[in-house]
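Is this the right way to post structure tokens for a design question? Let me know if I should format differently. Anyway, here goes:
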């Protein structure tokens, strides 16, 4: 008890309990305030009920004794908050020479647990220079994980926890797994165990404990998130195989085939969420999971799974002598345009090997359809690798056209010329390869130039207004919002593992590309109300009645570049069908292709009239 307080107790003015409490705020004692930080008491006036404290953020702060006792709390002299006001230079030197020790002491000062945001507030700008703090923290975080002295979570809102110094490195790894609170954090913790698998397997009961944690988590996730459950169990099995301790998995533990059975209703989505490195092990479990139906089950996800998954499925079916089933499935899917970009890319890459039996001219048309749909859809592009493959593989176009009928080649060329999926230079490069393979298509390039006369786009006033509104929304709303999202995500640090940052940057690429496309198209746009169109032949602004085989007639309206609406039989003059009938006169024939079935039909121009 402080001597000045002891006199008050002896005089009976205060009791012993109050005296002990007052002594904790005597000169030389350290206190912590939520707003001012750590501080040291420099003076007090017991008779006047005042105390003076030099806080980190407020020097010479005078407070009432009662208020000071209520609003501050005592801290030890070796507490980091105390040292920030008494030995700041020493802490700064420690931050440079031994940053792990600085973090350990800081967490220890906060009861052995604190979040990264709390750590930032404690260190940034005071002990560590604010401008270099992010770089310092990234380096320190890596060193902390290697030291095993503090558990470092993947999310900033989760607490870093000081470890028991007596724990072995293997025990620390398993404890990290136990402390993980999200499926992603558990996977990362389990991957850390995999990197040190012999170390963990050598500790008595450690591997069994780790697998027990994984088993419990996987069981809870089985129905809520089969993908995360599959990821954990696949990784568990990998580790058990590497250290040859399958018995450590435990009896009654969940197995991959059991989780696949639960995930049956949404297999493609779940498998797309699994790391590519673990797909093979999961796909290998299909026969046990689905018995005689396994081939149909695995083919149901073939056109919707990632590139790595497509390759693994093809290999697995080949190993089980089921390649014929794969080829039949692919042919049907091609006819229905039901294959995704990764499956189409696999067919192209393997066209002289595993996919030789299904690679033909129909693949090219499906590729153009998928690329076009993806370019028009909102959101991130899914077909980037497929588009790059078409551009980078110099022999692909020639192989696609090999053996194709001239009319089919022309239809492919029309579709390519009208495709919005490629910038002009790329489209010209691809068309040059078509002409090199089939010189007769040269006339299409010349004809296109003559029919257009220039690079303009004929559009309706309504579609022009829609494009202008879309550009305005991009410039004024979506792009500024995206910039803020990038800045907010960047502030979370650790960009390599920051999903929000990478998603925001990917969206930035999409938005800027769309902005460039809109600006370029609006410069080329020539609006019209379509009145006065020449109806002696099929032209922009005409209604044309087509006679199909069997005598069935349908009327179509040919309008501007951005006016296509299949549900109302309105076609854009730049569409494949529009290009096929443009310039035709009554009585002439044209070949049009059904975009869904790819079936080519010969139609006759029955009549033409201008739009009203």
């Amino acid at each position: 008890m402080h001597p000045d307080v002891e006199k008050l107790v002896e005089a009976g003015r205060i009791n012993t309990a109050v005296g002990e409490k007052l002594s904790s705020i005597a000169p030389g004692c350290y206190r912590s305030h939520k707003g001012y930080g750590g501080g040291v008491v420099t003076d007090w006036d017991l008779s006047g009920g005042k105390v003076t404290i030099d806080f980190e953020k407020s020097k010479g702060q005078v407070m009432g004794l009662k208020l000071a006792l209520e609003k501050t709390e005592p801290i030890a002299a070796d507490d980091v908050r105390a040292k920030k006001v008494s030995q700041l230079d020493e802490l700064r030197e420690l931050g440079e020479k031994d940053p792990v020790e600085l973090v350990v002491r800081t967490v220890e000062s906060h009861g052995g647990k604190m979040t990264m945001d709390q750590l930032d507030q404690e260190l940034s700008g005071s002990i560590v220079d604010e401008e270099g703090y992010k770089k310092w923290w990234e380096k320190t975080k890596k060193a902390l994980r290697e030291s095993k002295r503090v558990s470092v979570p993947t999310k900033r809102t989760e607490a870093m926890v000081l470890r028991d110094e007596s724990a072995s490195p293997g025990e620390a790894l398993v404890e990290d797994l136990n402390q993980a609170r999200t499926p992603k954090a558990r996977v990362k913790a389990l991957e850390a165990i995999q990197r040190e698998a012999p170390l963990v397997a050598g500790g008595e009961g450690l591997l069994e404990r780790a697998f027990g944690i994984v088993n419990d988590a996987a069981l809870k996730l089985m129905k809520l998130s089969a993908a995360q459950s599959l990821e954990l169990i696949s990784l568990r099995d990998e580790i058990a195989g590497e250290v040859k301790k399958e018995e450590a998995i435990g009896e009654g533990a969940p197995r991959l085939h059991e989780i696949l059975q639960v995930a049956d209703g949404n297999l493609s989505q779940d498998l797309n969420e699994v790391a590519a490195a673990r797909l093979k092990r999961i796909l290998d479990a299909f026969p046990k999971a689905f018995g005689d139906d396994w081939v149909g089950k695995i083919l149901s996800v073939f056109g919707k799974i990632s590139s790595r998954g497509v390759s693994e499925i093809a290999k697995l079916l080949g190993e089980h002598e089921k390649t014929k089933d794969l080829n039949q499935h692919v042919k049907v899917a091609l006819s229905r345009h039901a294959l995704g970009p990764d499956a189409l890319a696999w067919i192209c890459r393997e066209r002289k090997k595993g996919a030789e039996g299904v690679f033909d001219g129909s693949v090219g048309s499906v590729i153009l359809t998928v690329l076009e749909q993806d370019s028009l859809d909102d959101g991130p592009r899914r077909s980037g690798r497929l588009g790059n493959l078409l551009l980078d593989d110099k022999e692909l176009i020639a192989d696609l056209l090999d053996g194709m009928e001239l009319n089919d080649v022309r239809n492919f060329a029309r579709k390519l010329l009208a495709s919005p999926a490629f910038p002009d230079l790329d489209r010209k490069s691809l068309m040059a390869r078509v002409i090199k393979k089939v010189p007769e298509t040269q006339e299409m390039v010349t004809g296109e130039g003559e029919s257009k006369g220039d690079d303009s786009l004929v559009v309706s006033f309504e579609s022009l207004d829609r494009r202008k509104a879309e550009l305005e929304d991009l410039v004024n709303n979506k792009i500024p919002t995206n910039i803020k999202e990038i800045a907010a995500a960047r502030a979370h640090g650790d960009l390599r593992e920051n999903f929000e940052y990478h998603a925001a940057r990917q969206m930035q690429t999409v938005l800027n590309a769309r902005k460039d496309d809109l600006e370029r198209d609006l410069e080329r746009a020539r609006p019209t109300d379509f009145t006065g169109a020449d109806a002696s032949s099929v032209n922009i602004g005409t209604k044309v009645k087509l006679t199909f085989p069997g005598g069935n007639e349908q009327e179509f309206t040919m309008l501007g570049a951005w006016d296509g609406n299949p549900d109302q039989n309105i076609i854009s003059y730049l569409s494949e069908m529009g290009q096929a009938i443009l310039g035709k006169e009554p009585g002439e024939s044209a070949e049009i292709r059904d975009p869904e079935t790819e079936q080519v039909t010969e139609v006759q121009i029955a009549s033409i009239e201008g739009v009203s």
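Format looks fine. Someone answered above. Worth noting: The chain has a mean pLDDT of 87. The longest helix spans residues 461-490.
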